[in-house]
UniProtKB/TrEMBL annotation:
<dbReference type="GO" id="GO:0003852">
    <property type="term" value="F:2-isopropylmalate synthase activity"/>
</dbReference>
<dbReference type="InterPro" id="IPR005675">
    <property type="entry name" value="Citramal_synthase"/>
</dbReference>
<protein>
    <recommendedName>
        <fullName>Citramalate synthase</fullName>
        <ecNumber>2.3.3.21</ecNumber>
    </recommendedName>
</protein>
<dbReference type="InterPro" id="IPR036230">
    <property type="entry name" value="LeuA_allosteric_dom_sf"/>
</dbReference>
<dbReference type="InterPro" id="IPR054691">
    <property type="entry name" value="LeuA/HCS_post-cat"/>
</dbReference>
<dbReference type="Pfam" id="PF00682">
    <property type="entry name" value="HMGL-like"/>
</dbReference>
<dbReference type="GO" id="GO:0009098">
    <property type="term" value="P:L-leucine biosynthetic process"/>
</dbReference>
<dbReference type="InterPro" id="IPR000891">
    <property type="entry name" value="PYR_CT"/>
</dbReference>
<dbReference type="InterPro" id="IPR002034">
    <property type="entry name" value="AIPM/Hcit_synth_CS"/>
</dbReference>
<keyword id="KW-0028">Amino-acid biosynthesis</keyword>
<dbReference type="InterPro" id="IPR013785">
    <property type="entry name" value="Aldolase_TIM"/>
</dbReference>
<feature type="domain" description="Pyruvate carboxyltransferase">
    <location>
        <begin position="3"/>
        <end position="272"/>
    </location>
</feature>
<dbReference type="Pfam" id="PF22617">
    <property type="entry name" value="HCS_D2"/>
</dbReference>
<dbReference type="GO" id="GO:0009097">
    <property type="term" value="P:isoleucine biosynthetic process"/>
</dbReference>
<keyword id="KW-0100">Branched-chain amino acid biosynthesis</keyword>
<comment type="similarity">
    <text>Belongs to the alpha-IPM synthase/homocitrate synthase family.</text>
</comment>
<dbReference type="GO" id="GO:0043714">
    <property type="term" value="F:(R)-citramalate synthase activity"/>
</dbReference>
Amino acid sequence: MTYQVFDTTLRDGAQREGISYSVVDKLAVARLLDELGVGFIEGGWPGAMPKDTEFFERARSELDLKHAVLVAFGSTRKAGVAVREDKQIQALLDAQTPVLCLVAKSDIRHVTRALRTTAEENLAMVRDSVEYLVSQGRRVFVDCEHFFDGYRFDSAYTASVVRTALDAGAERVVMCDTNGGMLPSQITAAVTGLMSELGVDGDRLGIHCQNDTSCAVANTVAAVEAGVTHFQCTANGYGERPGNADLFAVLGNLQLKLGLPVLPEGCLEKMVRVSHAIAEIANIAPDTHQAYVGAAAFAHKAGLHASAIKVDPLLYNHVEPSVVGNDMRILVTEMAGRASIELKSRELGLDLAGHPEALARVTEQVKDLEAHGWSFEAADASFELLVRSQLAGGVTRPFTLESYRATVEHREDGSVISEATVKVRVRGERVIATAEGNGPVNALDEALRVALRRHYPALADFELADYKVRILEGTHGTQAVTRVLVETAAAGRDWTTVGVHENVVEASWHALVDALTYGLVPVPA
Ligand SMILES: CC(=O)SCCNC(=O)CCNC(=O)[C@H](O)C(C)(C)COP(=O)(O)OP(=O)(O)OC[C@H]1O[C@@H](n2cnc3c(N)ncnc32)[C@H](O)[C@@H]1OP(=O)(O)O
Ligand SMILES: CC(=O)C(=O)O
């Protein structure tokens, strides 16, 4: 069986609120999808938008697709207009793609109320458009808009649209859940009903599901299980309203769960990279919790999971993460048990397996600190320092603190300046340094750098990449506390540290000290 993976990220996916691709963006997305191994890339609607017309023009010389063919999208001819006179139909031919995808009305209510034409004229629009485009040497797919709603309302008319398109020479007729309101059982019933009513095989049919019931992926899989061999999806599920069927979840499910050969050999493992690269181009933060490709798709927090994962990672993962290009991660939080701590430490290159007492101490410390507002989930560097402090050799701090002071000064002219002084001991020397900053934390950071730079010149490259503050509600009568996360970057790597205190400056100080310690102190061999 040959399956057709039809991607519509650049057409339907671009209908998502907030997305606006440039032509260069579209070309880059097309290259990524081709690399992933999809069979068809629907690039847009030529003639409807100048950008899409330009995309198809430039694609001819700028795209060298290895797996995919380009598809131009448009609608059937207008009611009452001869097909050869229809400007949109001409624009489709001008796009010079080997494949065209036409949207056709297939719900009688849309024919009479939205198109304001007759049932017969709509069938003629489908027939004329398909026959003409096929006669011009194009492969034609027909997207039957509102197929499922139409089929439930008046199955005879909806089936007659499908029959007309097939008889006119359409290679595929695609059943669209345009309003996205269907459930998997309803998809199965309609697909099997149509196939037996018309006597057509699934290799003449396709499926296109919007995600308004959050069932687009399940609905697509249900249609394929019912025999359909062409499916339309978008990268990361982008699309109109809540979106479309997520290409990556559909591919993962079909290939890994149903064993269907939907992508060329070796392509599935490109999913994570392609998903994130497209998110970058679309300017949408990747969804951490997206199935298969999200950064948290294989992240485990619960201690019980980790203890079984230690025996065999597949005991708590539905697939081996690397087959889709992802990684498993162990999260260290209050829910950690000794197994979580051991696995996380191993991830960081630290062996706690042979040190049961240290393992128990770290587990206890993590639980205790987390109960007081600390969070190590996103602060690997602080966690690593905590583990190292319990192992032989411990952690040598680059300095010890005698005291610090930070002030905020609101001046008459409205400017606000902070000043900080630190008194520290560095390699046996007492150093006092003062610096200004735009806030007390910035001033403290600057003062520390002044104090340490002669002994630690590497500090000059350290950059405060991110600083997050969260006020945590007080519980059980305790005061509210502040949690600070500091992300530091240097020499192509970055690390995150955490600090917690009732006072935001003190919380920041803890996170800063861990950040400098982690970056400056070499890991013991
Ligand atoms: C389900 C989907 O997502 S399908 C894809 C939808 N995508 C888009 O609409 C994005 C691009 N669209 C556009 O740029 C514009 O809507 C255009 C260029 C296509 C049309 O613009 P306009 O000519 O100004 O028409 P408008 O958008 O107001 O109305 C659509 C027209 O197409 C007609 N139409 C709608 N569906 C079809 C169809 N399947 N076959 C033929 N005509 C159709 C409507 O009856 C209406 O005709 P009218 O102008 O005679 O009333
Ligand atoms: C064609 C299409 O995008 C739809 O019916 O949803």
